[in-house]
Amino acid sequence: MKKAVVLLSGGLDSTTVLYWAKKRRYQIFPLAFDYGQRHAKKELCAARKIARLNELNLKVLQISLPWKGSSLIDKSYPLPQVSSEKDIGGSIPSTYVPGRNLILLAFAFSYAESINASLILIGANSIDFSGYPDCRPQFYRLLNRLAQIGTKAGCEGQRIQVITPLIYFSKANIVRLGKKLKVPFRFTWSCYAGKKDPCGKCDSCLLRGRGFAEAGIKDPCAPLK
């Protein structure tokens, strides 16, 4: 049985990836992060719920990014609000956290190597996304090459590979796949604002809403109108 570290934020994409790994009968080691994101409480609550439902031991790492540089981790800057999905992806938004996926995946590689896991799974997507450069396929291709020469496992021929099952999926197809895998959508959280209910205005809310609408599936977490 292959061991797989799954980066689990509790959102739609990462939860779908966890169920994708479950379908393949991987031995799953979920990993979540509290890096000061403004929606950490809601996000980690969702991740813990998903892990408990699957009887998995979720590891949560708390890290600090004191230099800020993002509206996602610096509340003195407002979250960008867009009027429609057409406004998303044209430029890198202020919610981009400098080097975030590179940082999180470095921890994931360390964890994977320590438990002899051969896979790291992340719900990165380059189709319906906010334009983050660390969600593009070329980033992961190069990262996998670096891991082969930069880890003990790689040097000894025990490759650790980052897998991005959703990288070329539209959000609608992610929703369809999630339904097929019986993902409990009602327990997932996507909103960046991190308030009691989804704001329905941030990039993440709008992309999620479009995905469910195009898939013809009702989102149990849709914000009230």
Give structural notes.
By secondary structure, this protein is an alpha/beta fold. The chain has a single domain (3-215), classed as Rossmann fold. It has 7 helices and 5 strands. The chain has helices at residues 12-23, 40-53, 100-114, 137-150, 152-155, 171-180, 203-215; strands at 3-7, 27-34, 59-62, 119-121, 161-163. A 5-stranded parallel sheet has the order 3-2-1-4-5, with helices on both faces. Strand 2 (27-34), helix 2 and strand 3 form a beta-alpha-beta unit. Helix 1 crosses helix 6 and helix 6 packs across helix 7. The longest helix has 15 residues, at 100-114. It is globular, with a radius of gyration of 17 Å. The protein starts with a strand and ends in a 10-residue tail after the last helix. 41% of the residues are buried. The mean pLDDT is 93.
SS element count, helices: 7
Q: Got a strand count?
A: 5
Can you identify the CATH class? Answer: Alpha Beta
Strand content: 5-15%
Structural class: alpha/beta
Second-tier CATH architecture: 3-Layer(aba) Sandwich
Shape: globular
CATH homologous superfamily label = HUPs
Distance between the termini: 46 Å
Please describe the biggest sheet, giving its number of strands, its sense, and whether it closes into a barrel: 5 strands, parallel
Sheet with the most strands: spatial strand order: 3-2-1-4-5
What's the alpha carbon Rg, rounded to whole Å? Answer: 17 Å
Topology-level CATH name: Rossmann fold
